[in-house]
Specification:
By secondary structure, this protein is an alpha/beta fold. The protein is 36% helix and 16% strand. It has a single domain, classed as TIM Barrel (Alpha-Beta Barrel). An 8-stranded parallel β-barrel has the order 1-2-3-4-5-6-7-8. Bound molecules: zinc ion.
């Protein structure tokens, strides 16, 4: 397991980064969620990442494949243009040791069985074409047919020999019953013979509410004291009222590191 690394998330927006990274002490980890627009200018992402590294040399980075609140521009592993977006993440991880990995979304556009096959084929394709991509790729639990229930998610991960997972609390909690199930899921991930690294999207939520939207720490039902031993590697998934200011994510970060 990697040393304890808990951090926050931001887009590449300069104002947002400046405000979120004025935390003291500086978090050791930052997840950057990208958008499809970030890819439009060939060198843009790399240039911005280098300037973050120059300003904050101790900061480790995780990248998140393009996401978009209205889902139109969220890039999933099943999408026809997945290779363009995910190969770029791979090359950045390979090139810069301060980038630890990237989060990938296994969400079928349709709930059809065939999309699971497409997903498995596309993961196999990436593994074959991009050597060691599995060392960097963290597959997230979402709330679609493959990842809605923890059992099917874990089965999918193990069957496809996926060594890194991104486990999102809000997604899990929205479709499970109680804190015991959450603790048991974390236990199973940690005890898996296949999984090597568990990266967490930390947030609160209300059990079984069918809403995958993360709530701020303390607004939901997650017992963070109980699962504190599992909080080793991950970021706060908090949504701030004003993302550019990031007040809420900074508050939540302080709550979690003071548990
Ligand atoms: Zn995600």
């Amino acid at each position: 397991m990697i040393q304890k690394l808990i951090g926050i998330k931001s887009s590449l927006n300069e104002e947002q980064l400046k405000n979120k990274l004025n935390l003291f002490p500086l978090p050791p980890l930052l997840e950057i969620f990208l958008t499809t627009q970030d890819y439009e200018c060939e060198a843009y992402i790399e240039k911005r990442i280098n300037s973050i590294n120059q300003e904050f040399p101790s900061l480790k980075l995780m990248l998140h494949a393009p996401v978009d609140s209205n889902k139109k521009d969220t890039i999933h592993l099943q999408d026809s243009d997945f290779e363009f977006y995910y190969s770029k993440l791979y090359f950045l991880c390979k090139k810069y040791s301060f980038i630890l990995g990237f989060v990938a979304h296994p969400e079928p556009k349709t709930p059809k069985q065939s999309s699971k096959l497409i997903l498995e084929n596309n993961i196999a394709f990436l593994k074959q074409k991009y050597p060691s991509i599995e060392k960097f790729m963290y597959i997230e639990n979402l709330t679609n047919s493959i990842t809605l229930k923890f059992n099917t998610y874990l089965e999918f991960i193990e069957k496809n020999n996926i060594e890194n997972v991104c486990f999102d609390f809000a997604h899990f909690v929205s479709n499970h019953t109680n804190n015991n199930q959450l603790q048991e899921a974390l236990n199973q991930l940690n005890n898996s013979n296949i999984i090597k690294n568990i990266y967490l999207h930390i947030s609160d939520n209300i059990f079984n509410n069918n809403s995958p939207i993360p709530l701020n720490i303390g607004r939901g039902e997650v017992n963070f004291k109980n699962i504190n031993p599992y909080l080793n590697f991950g970021i706060l998934e908090t949504i701030s009222k004003n993302e550019e200011l990031g007040e809420e994510i900074k508050e939540d970060y302080n709550k979690i590191i003071q548990l």
